[in-house]
Design brief:
The structure is a homotetramer.
Chain A lengths: L1 E3 L15 H16 L10 E11 L8 E11 L3 E10 L2 E14 L2 E2 L4 H7 L1
């Protein structure tokens, strides 16, 4: 998954605003679903973020192409732990470990089979 | 309505990212509702933006206090035209004329009486 | 220029937050520069937005693919007026007329020749 | 430090978009500086985020007032570890442990004395 850094992503430090790396990672989780023929959110399920451990290693700048990879660490009955790495020009610039929980409306629900299917 | 400019609002030009002035104006419209004991969105109504004419006059910077004023220009049966001005250190830095339309779910609805009440 | 709508772009109305259409348009202006071998911002020049007239015609939703087109309306000595249209599933959903001004640091400067070159 | 949740902060789930909690925390760090007569960024110093461990405990919604507290956990020669908690209606809804590093331009620098002063 590749994403370009635009003006909107930068801050007055001339680099990507720290919270925006979480957005790039969320795009990559969504595109991973789309690439497997699924939506990241339907009437039947959606995901909420439970926890994130993020390491900001190097800054990215306007025009940089960010490459985001997703690695499943754990599949629970209703949750996923995913490791995400952002690379830029072949260098690791950001990593996060994120736990997401599957919901239907305001309640936790089991992971749908079609999602388990492409994760495992 | 006063709002401080934070790091998140700036871009690599060192000034507030242009689209963020629209957000400050939306905060001011919301706070105007809250100050009149109303929510800007309930099960019964919410608003969508129909058009905006924006003039970016001077830039704002980190730490600046933006003062946003709302002036009703027109009250339609289901819509409002509002003039909003942002001042910073006593100088006008941004203006917009915005038309918002009152909705219930996906349909246009008449302005609730309690909203007309504080507008007129 | 095609951009997908992600979770970050939506609001509690279930549609794209109004100010985010300006961001999609800015990405399209940037990609137009990149596609012509230029950066939208260098030490020598960058652009600031002077005015925007925006029409919000139909809402976009999660997963929608937005197609943004740029049409030059006027080329001034230091400014550009551009018409931008966003389509989604073949329907026009948003238009804006934007005036941007070319800057070097905090001063207005003439449009660089290489930019005039691909605009005209 | 109190901040209201606006439309811009929400997503299609009807709650605050996860990455935006980091923004509320950053506002609170900035306001903490301002309340002590200092800017969070000057020509002499600014801060970059090195790592974040975030727990998303309960969701916040439009109109909620978020109360953010800052607790210094560690003061290094050039870095700070801060614990931040967001409460809403008296309940803890989000916590993060953030490490920020003091910079001058692109280089790490020692914490200025005036900052150490109010931290300790």
């Amino acid at each position: 998954m590749k994403y370009r850094v635009y003006y909107e992503d930068t801050d007055m430090g001339g680099i990507v605003y720290h919270a925006n790396y979480l957005k790039f990672c969320e795009r990559a989780r969504s595109d991973w679903f789309y690439d497997n023929g699924l939506s990241p959110a339907t009437q039947e399920y959606h995901f909420i973020v439970k926890s994130i451990k993020a390491e900001f290693i190097k800054p990215a700048r306007l025009g940089d192409i960010l490459e985001v990879s997703n690695t499943v660490l754990e599949v629970g009955s209703a949750s996923l732990k995913i490791f995400q790495r952002i690379e830029c020009n072949g260098m690791e610039i950001y990593t996060q470990e994120v736990v997401v929980v599957c919901m239907k409306g305001e309640r936790i629900r089991r992971l749908p089979e079609e999602i388990k299917g492409f994760l495992l």
